[in-house]
């Protein structure tokens, strides 16, 4: 029994060592690409939120921005930008993610053993990231084929299924972005961890508030 436990512990350590062993130069380049792509997606999330929240000033204000994007061909450009940045971000993240069952098992075991908030946030960020990829691709496909204007957006939000869809996307995106930005600043030692957490939690709640009000206005407009 003792030999079996020792063997299992040794196997876990080997798996963990394998997961955390990288070429230093390649790892540095990967870190930079992951950080820059993540920051670009975070910036896009804010800009997108400000764009959609123009509905606060009425359907006319929303449509002015939508028509501006359509006139200058910004929608196809934005979609291509998102696809490229998503691909870069996902590719660099997957390099750090466990790819085998034993590796997943080791991650969960060590997360339970360490019982540290930052470790669990990394685990949940991985899970939410996977969900966001699926939801974001659906959203991009809908916008690409249906177009953007206040009437169409309102009709979609008025549907119970789409309303739930956008609420889930809003919550997951803000959580994932907040944790991702915290990890960037903490990893490079730019700020105090605890202060940064409080600031990012406030920003996330503020953005969720803006998103909730925006969805409420669109829902009312659709009705």
What number of structural domains do the residues give? 1
Tertiary shape: globular
Count up the helices. 9
Question: In sequence order, what are the helices and strands, one letter per element?
Answer: HHHHHHHHH
Strand content: under 5%
Notes on the structure:
- This protein has one domain: 3 helical TM bundles of succinate and fumarate reductases (Up-down Bundle), CATH 1.20.1300.10.
- The protein has 223 residues and is mostly helical.
- The longest helix is centred in the middle third of the chain and has 30 residues, at 117-146.
- Residues 1-12 have low confidence and may be disordered.
- It is globular, with a radius of gyration of 21 Å.
- Helix content is 87%, strand content 0%.
List its salient traits.
disordered N terminus; mainly alpha; 9 helices; 223 residues
Secondary structure layout plus pairing:
Layout: H1 2-19, H2 24-52, H3 59-71, H4 74-96, H5 101-114, H6 117-146, H7 150-158, H8 160-187, H9 193-222
Q: Brief description of this entry?
A:
By secondary structure, the protein is mostly helical.
């Amino acid at each position: 029994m003792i030999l079996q436990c020792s063997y299992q512990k040794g196997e876990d350590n080997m798996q963990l060592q394998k997961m955390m062993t990288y070429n230093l130069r390649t790892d540095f380049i990967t870190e930079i690409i992951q950080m820059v792509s993540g920051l670009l997606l975070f910036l896009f999330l804010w800009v997108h939120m400000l764009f959609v929240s123009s509905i606060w000033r009425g359907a006319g204000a929303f449509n002015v921005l939508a028509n501006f994007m359509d006139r200058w061909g910004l929608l196809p450009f934005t979609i291509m930008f998102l696809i490229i940045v998503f691909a870069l971000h996902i590719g660099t993240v997957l390099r750090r993610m466990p790819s085998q069952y034993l590796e997943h098992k080791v991650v969960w075991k060590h997360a339970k053993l360490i019982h540290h908030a930052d470790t669990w946030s990394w685990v949940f960020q991985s899970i939410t990231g996977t969900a966001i990829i699926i939801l974001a691709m659906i959203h991009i496909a809908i916008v690409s084929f249906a177009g953007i204007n206040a009437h169409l957006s309102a009709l979609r939000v008025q549907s119970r299924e789409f309303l739930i869809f956008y609420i889930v996307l809003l919550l997951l995106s803000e959580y994932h972005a907040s944790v991702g930005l915290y990890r960037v600043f903490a990893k490079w030692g730019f700020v105090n961890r605890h202060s940064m957490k409080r600031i990012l939690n406030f920003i996330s709640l503020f953005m969720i508030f803006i998103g909730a009000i925006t969805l409420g206005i669109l829902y009312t407009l659709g009705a």
